[in-house]
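Write out this protein's structure.
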Amino acid sequence: MAMRVGIVTVSDRCFRGEAEDASGPLIREWVTEHLHAEVEHERVVPDEADAIRDVLITWSDEENLDLIITTGGTGFARRDITPEVTKTVIERETPGLAEVMRSEGYKKTPHAMLSRAVCGIRGGTLIINMPGNPKAVRDGMEAITPALPHAIEILGGVHGANQRHEFKE
C-alpha cells in the first residue's frame, strides 16, 4: 500500500496569490518519484497559527495520513511560526530528522543552521517541517528520504519495536 501524504505550504504571499508556490509542487514530485507515495491533500495556508494547526490536526486525526510535510515558516521572520505550531500538535518529537536536514544542508550553505524546522509524530502520522526555499526543500528531502519508508512502516505497526535494523558500514 502506498504511503499517503499531505503537503501544506505556509506562506502569506502564496495564500494571497502574490507569489507562486514552488516548494509544494517540488515536494509532490519528490514523494511520488522517490517514495512512490500518493499525495492525497495539498493546501496553501497563511502564516496563522489556527490555519496551520487545523490542517495538521485534521489530516492526522481524521484523514489518518501517513506523512504530512509542511514547507515555509521555519525561518527567523516574525511571522515564521510553523515550528511553534507544530510543537503544539505533535505528541512526540523526532529530532533526528530535523538534525540531519540541517546538518546535510549546512554542507551546502551556512544558512541551513538558521532553520528552526521541527519534526514529530501525532498518532500514526509523521509531520515534517521543511523550509520554504525550493533548494533547501530538495536538500532536506534528499537527506531524510532513505529513512522515511521505515519510519512510516513502524508508525503503521508493520515492524515491531525489537525489529533488527540494517546499518551502513
